[in-house]
């Protein structure tokens, strides 16, 4: 009998307790720190026969060899993936143009004097909707949401095209979300709210002085107050606002002041508002990225400690939407979406319809010829070889990931970043994942009202023998 290779220990801050998570059985349990220490040190004599039987059933300890447990993990991963790929998610990019000039934008290479950024017309909208229908029939599973991305998707100049998309799309049963800089959101006021454009992600990088220095309009004007006014408008119309704060070493301290402004605006208490911090990826590699991530996690914890007495909850999260959804699904006992061998939709089921008429699976790959997986304009054409290259990059096909306890959470990390930093698309890109995972679990557990009374039990049909 030995400690499982896939057990994860998450100490709870300010409590004499540890959360146990099993990376392939889906089990989650709250135990004392003493229990966790004895388990780590395999002091089997400190546990009753019933305790050992329970831990064996839930996967924390095992009679399997390391290789047998790895083979079990792969079998479970294949079953999970087989279910997940029978679905799709759609992203529509009406333009690659943008009205801002942010220095850190990963799309800047698309918008140069020698590279005129394209936009779609209504014929391309119709072609994209036909392609979406064909993909749903091909893959199975109904898609009812489309995410708008850019460039800047909600430019005023895009309104005629988006009016066409909203009209035809809602008739087909779609609802919409958007990632937008928020500067021209007011031009879409009549589409905002339940039923059409229901949620938007908007970025503020600090108070006015800091934000306007980083996210300026191409005419040199600041954008903070226009964005603030549009957020107020959208919240009043029932739109959910996900506020992103990009954080670098030079802007960390400004985030505290920005959150204080959210408080003064009344946003922190609004049920339609949420905010999160995203470390800016620099050129220092994974080590530097991990160091900044640690600093931002500490910042988020300190901000939440300051505001929790007033609001009774965390008011700021860390970036990692996919991971947050996985953990939330895990705690809701929805293991099919909690555990997956794919890092994100780019390696599973996502299709990005870009303004150049091409289809990609990753929005960071837009404009890169080798990242294209097909076209939707004028008709749907898929490059099966390229599509398989993207959809087959997951932890089941990366040897180092097969033995990792985060096999179905990190799932190999981002393929684009693996290629950029490791020069190998099928290499793992960990990027400080263990610390990020612990942070999100701690945040999720802290918000459970029944933590003191009810054990958290989740099963996958995991077979121990």
Notes on the structure:
With 465 residues, the protein is α/β, with parallel strands linked by helices. Helix content is 38%, strand content 15%. It has helices at residues 33-40, 49-58, 66-84, 122-139, 159-171, 208-214, 224-236, 252-265, 285-311, 321-331, 335-338, 384-391, 399-402, 415-422, 433-446; strands spanning 2-3, 7-11, 17-22, 28-32, 61-62, 89-92, 145-148, 175-179, 197-203, 240-247, 273-279, 317-318, 350-353, 358-360, 372-375, 381-382. The strands form three sheets. An eleven-stranded mixed sheet has the order 12-11-10-9-8-7-6-13-14-15-16. Strands 2-3-4 form a three-stranded antiparallel sheet. Helix 9 runs parallel beside helix 15 (433-446). It starts with a strand and ends in a 19-residue tail after the last helix. Residues 451-461 have low confidence and may be disordered.
């Amino acid at each position: 009998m030995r400690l499982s290779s896939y057990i994860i220990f998450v100490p709870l801050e300010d409590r004499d307790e540890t959360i146990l998570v099993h990376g392939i059985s889906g089990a989650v349990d709250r135990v004392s720190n003493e229990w966790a220490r004895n388990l780590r040190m395999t002091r089997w004599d400190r546990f009753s026969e019933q305790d050992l039987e329970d831990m064996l059933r839930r996967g924390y300890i095992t009679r399997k060899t390391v290789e047998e447990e790895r083979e079990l993990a792969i079998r479970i991963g294949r079953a999970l993936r087989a279910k997940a790929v029978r679905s799709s998610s759609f992203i529509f990019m009406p333009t690659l143009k943008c009205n801002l000039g942010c220095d850190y934008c990963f799309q800047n290479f698309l918008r140069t004097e020698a590279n005129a950024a394209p936009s779609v017309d209504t014929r391309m909208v119709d072609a994209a909707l036909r392609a979406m229908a064909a993909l749903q029939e091909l893959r199975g599973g109904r898609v009812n949401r489309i995410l708008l991305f850019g460039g800047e998707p909600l430019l005023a100049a895009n309104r005629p095209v988006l009016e066409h998309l909203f009209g035809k799309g809602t008739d087909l049963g779609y609802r919409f979300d958007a990632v937008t800089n928020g500067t021209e959101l007011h031009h879409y006021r009549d589409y905002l709210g339940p039923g059409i454009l229901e949620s938007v992600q908007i970025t503020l990088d600090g108070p006015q002085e800091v934000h306007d220095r980083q996210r300026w309009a191409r005419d040199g004007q600041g954008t903070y107050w226009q964005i603030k006014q549009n957020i107020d408008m959208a919240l009043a119309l029932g739109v959910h606002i996900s506020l992103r704060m990009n954080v670098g070493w030079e802007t960390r301290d400004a985030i505290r002041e920005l959150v204080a402004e959210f408080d003064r605006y009344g946003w922190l208490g609004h049920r339609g508002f949420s905010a999160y911090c995203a470390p800016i990826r620099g050129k220092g590699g994974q080590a530097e990225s991990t160091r900044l991530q640690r600093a931002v996690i500490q910042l988020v914890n300190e901000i939440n400690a300051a505001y929790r007495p007033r609001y009774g909850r965390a008011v700021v999260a860390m970036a990692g939407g996919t991971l947050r959804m996985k953990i939330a699904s895990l705690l809701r006992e929805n293991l099919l979406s909690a555990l997956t061998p794919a890092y994100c939709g780019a390696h599973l089921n996502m299709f990005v319809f870009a303004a150049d008429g091409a289809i990609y699976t990753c929005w960071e790959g837009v404009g890169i010829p080798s990242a294209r997986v097909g076209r939707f304009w004028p008709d749907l054409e898929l490059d099966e070889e390229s599509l398989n290259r993207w959809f087959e990059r997951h932890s089941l096909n990366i040897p180092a990931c097969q033995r990792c306890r985060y096999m179905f959470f990190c799932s190999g990390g981002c393929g684009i970043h693996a290629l950029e930093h490791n020069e190998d698309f099928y290499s793992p890109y960990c990027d400080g994942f263990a610390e990020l995972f612990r942070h999100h679990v701690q945040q999720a557990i802290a918000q459970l009202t029944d933590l003191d009374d009810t054990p958290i039990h989740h099963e996958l049909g995991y077979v121990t023998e």
